[in-house]
Specification:
285 residues; alpha/beta; Rossmann fold; 5-stranded antiparallel sheet; globular
Length: 285
């Protein structure tokens, strides 16, 4: 498998009054031209992993790794100026609640054009045409009107689509999607996922899909990493997620309601201190 990202022993550490806190603790995985899901409960280190790949952890937080490479290029060894070219141009990230990541005082079109021109040096006319093309690619029927609009004039689903268009306008090789559908109803969620899936397949990209929804990841992704307390406790093919064996993964699955197997009472997740002490499972293939 062609490796777009190769990560070994990634750690994210923050100093506190009680000592150093490791939000991500020595995880290893790689990403090819595939849809890789990262799941776990809140605080498991999923979003921190995505931000660490792009070196978006602010001091005094630290990002360390034995290897953090994008197609053989060492991301940790790059200067901040070099990383600015990687962010958006090579790797894009759709943040949680992406509509609120848009600048509220700039028109939608201005924001997409600004990103495209920064990374490509294109003329304003070419950038405008590219922005229209990308809004059409995410199934926005009236892109000219949306280009003139402000973010607050858009619905949640439209905001998600705009953010996806903005992150893909430079045609990056890797997309990190952090809970991109968490605030959407089921019908809009399905539309947004189909858009992401279509664009990833058409462009041959690698996708890291961060979510707490195990059922969604099982149906959407190719491979899954399950995180707990900053470590990977299990990895499996997405279509085999419901046959997972680790007690933490089983606990997460059993706490979800299922239409095909209704339960009078859902199970509460029971944690074992040994899970925190166990070494991280490798997600590299």
């Amino acid at each position: 498998m062609e490796k777009l990202l190769d990560i070994e022993n990634l750690r994210v550490t923050f100093p506190t009054r009680q000592g150093e806190f490791e939000a991500v603790r020595g995880i290893s995985f790689n990403l090819g031209r595939e849809r890789l899901g990262i799941v776990g409960e809140s605080g498991s280190g999923k979003s921190m992993t995505g931000r660490a790949i792009l070196r978006l952890i602010r001091p005094p937080g630290r990002v360390e790794a034995d290897r953090l490479e994008m197609e053989g290029r060492d991301l940790l060894g790059m200067s901040e100026r070099e990383m600015q070219r990687v962010r958006g141009e090579q790797i894009s990230m759709v943040m949680q609640d992406p509509k609120f990541s848009l600048n509220p005082v700039m028109r939608v079109g201005e924001q997409i054009i600004e990103i495209y021109r920064f990374h490509t040096g294109a003329s304003k006319r070419d950038a405008y045409a590219k922005a229209i093309e990308m809004l059409q690619a995410v199934s926005i029927n009236d892109p000219e009107r949306v280009m003139r609009a402000y973010p607050h004039e858009m619905s949640g689903g439209m905001g998600q689509r705009i953010m996806i268009a903005m992150m893909l306008v430079t045609e990056p090789k890797v997309l990190i999607a952090d809970e991109p559908t968490s605030a959407l109803d089921v019908s809009v969620q399905t539309q947004v996922l189909s858009i992401i899936d279509r664009l990833v397949r058409q462009r041959g990209m690698g996708l890291i899909f961060i979510s707490h929804d195990l059922n969604l990841v099982a149906s959407f992704c190719d491979r899954v990493l399950i995180m707990y307390a900053g470590r990977i406790v299990e990895t499996c093919a997405a279509d085999q997620l419901h046959q997972a064996r680790h007690p933490y993964t089983r606990g997460l699955l059993n706490s979800l309601p299922r239409l095909d197997a209704p339960q009078p009472r859902l199970e509460a997740l029971k944690r074992d201190p040994a899970w925190t002490l166990a070494p991280s499972v490798s997600g590299r293939i």
